Amino acid sequence: MSYAHYSCVHQTSCILCVKSRLSFTFRGLITPVFTPFNSDRAKSLNLSLIPQYGDYLARKGITGVLVNGTTGEGPTMNVSERMSVAEAWTNTVKNTKQHLMIQVGGTSLPDVLDLARHAESIQADSILCLPELYFRPQTFDDLRDYLKMISSAAPNTPLLYYNFPRMSNVNLHMGQFLQYLGDQIPNFRGIKFSSPNLEEGAQVLRAGNNKYVTFFGNDQLLSASCALGADSFITTGSNVVSELVLETIAEAKAGNVLKAREKQQRLTSVILTIAKYGNWVETMKAAMTLLTNINPGPPRASSKLLTAQVTTSMANDLQNLGLQVKM
Predict the structure, then answer these.
(1) What is the DSSP secondary-structure string of 59-90?
(2) Residue 237 contacts by C-beta under 8 Å, 6 or more apart in sequence?
(3) Which residue from 2, 15, 6, 23 is spatially nearest to 154, judged by alpha carbons?
(4) pTM, whole model, 2 decimals?
(5) Which residues have a Cβ under 8 Å from the Cβ of 180 and sit 6 or more positions away?
(6) pLDDT tens per residue, range 238-253
(7) CA 212 to CA 178: how far, in whole Å?
């Protein structure tokens, strides 16, 4: 398997370029993007939508995207499809100037390593990786060793761990893990923390004297995360109500407690209204179609679309919350 290799005005191994790529200075909000599928039997990729999708998010003030994550249904695609999606976003961010994070986990180890190599070859800004999902890590050593293998496949790209215990069933304490990890993985830079445990989240933020970047992943806990000192987030809600997510973060980071609480309550109401109609991806994709000019198509992880009746009910509920719905 061959890939287009990273290059610069010097050489592939240019020390200055490698150091620049590994510095990982991005802070702020990253949107975990949906993977657009067609409504055919195979739910084939609709890559033609991605440039429009990226432009839409950029105009909303979104400066980073996460590809092939949970929201992007990464584990439902084969390696070739995941690479195609990553390449389409690589071409898109050349115009939108968004940070490109690619999630490579959720499949067999050889495939994970191939996906990591590919992400580095197409100059992804960072790599995010789920843990091994069958032979799950039971100890800090297990997780370190797994991440070391991913690191060795893409040593010149910042690596982050995707902590999502509800889905992965890996329940290692992340604050303690980061303290344990230290400098054992040279390109390791932080985690996506998709857990509601804010006590653990606070320890993650403080680990290694604030050495690691932590992306909090819960739309309903944005203001609370900011109160802990969080400055970076990856939340699905930023696809459908980008302004509200950004406003919640801005008010919370500014210390405007009452305004932040008001924004957070409104955001939480929107998220709960959407989520009550089915599983996470299918309902959020439906909401994306109702609230924006982007139609990401059907979910692949679910065998069904929301019925017209359910979609109409969701639309009515969202209108009752004061949102402008496209029907």
Answers:
(1) HTT--EEEESSTTTTGGGS-HHHHHHHHHHHH
(2) 219, 244, 245, 267, 270, 271, 284
(3) 6
(4) 0.93
(5) 140, 144
(6) 999 999 999 999 999 9
(7) 8
